[in-house]
Amino acid sequence: QTSMKNMERELVCPVCKEMYKQPLALPCTHNVCHVCASEVLLQHGHLYCDPTSEPTSPAATPSTRSPRLGRRAVPKPDRLDRLLKSGFGTYPGRKRGAVHPQTVSFPCPACQRDVDLGERGLGSLFRNLTLERVVERYRQTINISAAIMCQFCKPPQLEATKGCTECKSSFCNECFKLYHPWGTQKAQHEPTPPTLTFRPKGLMCPEHKEEVTHYCKTCQRLVCQLCRVRRTHTSHKITPVLSAYQALREKLTKSLTYILSSQDTVQTQIAELEETVKHTEV
């Protein structure tokens, strides 16, 4: 138990304090999540460009590139050098307003040192695929060691194979069918992996399939962590979903209070108009 806990600490990102997602290997040998690294650079005033958008980036793998980008012609090395020397275009870690390329300094959250990433910023980093596989295997080990049993089986209970966020329960295959009969509203519930702790189902970003966490006031739309660090929202006003929800709720509450307070006056005016119509008809 203790050794598993120690191993879990080694698989946690020093920025988000969660297990690594697409970890990037820093020159100081420490690792950081792709999204976390992007946010750190953004906070330090560097424009962010998704490394997957540059086919030459070592941080991009064939599975993460867009098929549309894969069909584009790769710029010739000499032309790419001319573009970088002339200061045109954006790339990971380019400073806002910079005319000429400059090296990017990344503050490593693990060793508290400023690490030089070169001119390409995150584009010069490699994804730590070995660490990524270790994290995935660890997750599978935890799931196997803590088997979740069906909550509706009569003894002997079968192992749960599906979960339902709406029902907040885990089921075996037969029980899932039994409690989600065809032709009912429950039949539309989407099965999820079985778990003992069901989080409320959050809204998902249609583009990145990640849970939305922020609201862009400029675009008036919900955004996920990956949307947030894209160049599209560089100068936009972005707030956490909870803050946006509370502000909108207060605004609607005030409007509703005003409407309800004016209801009696409006009803009186309607009654007077109806009397006037009757009088006119007579």
Automatic annotation (TrEMBL):
InterPro entries (UniProt xref): E3_ligase_FN3/SPRY, Znf_B-box, Znf_C3HC4_RING-type, Znf_RING, Znf_RING/FYVE/PHD, Znf_RING_CS
Entry superkingdom: Eukaryota
Keyword Metal-binding: yes
Extent of Low complexity compositional bias: 52-67
GO molecular function, one term: zinc ion binding
Domain RING-type: 13-49
Keywords: Coiled coil, Cytoplasm, Cytoskeleton, Metal-binding, Repeat, Zinc, Zinc-finger
Cellular location(s): Cytoplasm, Cytoskeleton
Gene Ontology annotations for the cellular component aspect, listed alphabetically: axon cytoplasm; cytoskeleton; main axon
Protein name per its UniProtKB record: TRI46 protein
